[in-house]
Design goal:
Length: 103
């Protein structure tokens, strides 16, 4: 219940925390801090042990590491081809439907 209430602040009109570098506003001080670290200070604390590439978010590092492990958990139901990322599968599936993926 507290999480839902806290999340509601994201949608409020008045955002109390403003970035002094670019003027972007945020509902949470932690969001402003993260923004400054990533966008202005280029803080990238999550480093790939295989290739040394750095990421600002752990989730992005974990997603990247699938390249090294060869893990391809997203499988096309139409032809059986597998992909390391869901968006790669979604893009591939457009070829089966005839939809143009890029315009």
């Amino acid at each position: 219940k507290g999480g839902l209430k806290r999340h509601g602040q994201v949608h409020k009109v008045e955002k109390d925390y403003k970035c002094l570098d670019c003027g972007k506003t945020f509902s949470y001080s932690s969001s402003l801090r993260n923004h400054c670290n990533v966008m202005h200070l280029r803080v990238t604390p999550h480093k790939c042990s295989e290739c040394g590439k750095c990421f600002s978010r752990k989730a992005n590092l974990l997603r990247h590491q699938q390249i090294h492990t060869g893990e391809k958990p997203y499988r096309c139901q139409e032809c059986g081809k597998s992909f390391p990322h869901k968006e790669y599968l979604r893009n591939h599936e457009k070829f089966h439907t005839g939809e143009k993926p890029y315009r």
